[in-house]
Amino acid sequence: MIRELPALIGAGSILVAGLFGPGCxxxxxxxxxxxxxxxxxxxxxxxxxxxxxxxxxxxxxxKLFMTxxxxxxxxxxxxTTDADGIDGLVGxxxxxxxxxxxxxxxDTPFAIGRRTTAFPDQHARPPHHPHPxxxxxxxxxxxxxxxxKGFAAGDNQGQFEVTIRRARP
Length: 169
Description:
Blueprint: H1 4-20, E1 34-45, E2 51-58, E3 63-74, E4 79-81, E5 99-103, E6 110-111, E7 136-137, E8 142-148, E9 157-167
Antiparallel strand pairs: 1-9, 2-8, 3-4, 3-7, 3-9, 5-6, 5-8
């Protein structure tokens, strides 16, 4: 019996390595990539009104990559921010004044942010492995709008330039 134990441990290690190794779909899901040939739109979002129509009609479940450049200065707070917003954290949350989207007139806004840098993983303990920003899955069919989290009217300045691409199938 004792002679068989190392054989069982060795077989178990191979099984565990196969289930949870570098190629494991459970721990390392396939990474979606933007399709560079499908720039659907480049939209300029200015802080003089809360929502900008992208001119795009999206389908529920459609996956889009959005990358944002630029800064906005908010008159009410006197602060300048990029698309991650004031006190926003890349991959975790979009702060006030950051870029959000919605589909249709009544849909709840969803976070977008800059999405130009790697997202940190959300594991509590190290090691932490950054990963590419994932695509955004559209919540329903309808017209896509871009806007600002916690929009505050005023003499705001600046703009966000948002490039929208489809994910590769």
